[in-house]
Write a structure and sequence with these properties.
By secondary structure, this protein is an all-alpha fold. The protein is built from one helix and no strands. The longest helix has 161 residues. It is rod-shaped.
Length: 163
């Protein structure tokens, strides 16, 4: 009984020691777990901050690229607008020149027609005057021929009488 009591005391002491060690181990495990949680939390915070920084850098780069592209597009648009304005101005100038040239051409055509009509009228008058002159000349030639014929006839007769 004494031995049993000694064993029970020893068992109780071992049990208490085991429970105490178990408690210590639980406490140490909890502390390690809490330390790991703290480390994990700190690492998670660091990761989140790093992620936010990277996202911020990425957004800044995207914003810079967008601004750069907007500036390039604005520059290109200004260039194209200037080119378009230049082309429009050239077309307008060319159009005005064509209108002016057309008006000049129409005036020249009208002047040419007027001069042609005047020339035709002068030519008609000249033809009429020349026709009258030719008729008068023909009449004169006929009169001279008649006179020559008469004198020829007279000359022929005289030759006949002489012979």
């Amino acid at each position: 009984m004494e031995q049993e009591e000694g064993f029970n005391k020893k068992l109780l002491m071992i049990k208490e020691e085991f429970v105490r060690k178990l408690e210590e181990e639980k406490h140490r495990s909890n502390e390690e777990e809490e330390a790991l949680r703290q480390q994990l939390f700190l690492k998670d915070d660091k990761f989140k901050k790093l992620l936010e920084e990277e996202q911020h850098k990425y957004h800044e780069k995207i914003f810079e690229k967008e601004e750069s592209m907007k500036q390039q597009l604005l520059t290109q648009e200004e260039t194209h607008n200037k080119m378009l304005a230049d082309v429009c101005q050239r077309w307008e100038t060319t159009s005005q020149k064509w209108v002016q040239m057309r008006e000049e051409l129409e005036q020249k055509v009208l002047e040419s027609q007027r001069l042609r009509q005047e020339e035709q009228e002068r030519t008609k008058e000249e033809l009429q005057r020349l026709s009258e002159a030719i008729l008068q000349l023909e009449l004169q030639v006929l009169k001279k021929k008649k006179k020559k014929s008469f004198w020829r006839w007279v000359c022929k007769r005289m030759r006949f009488w002489k012979s």
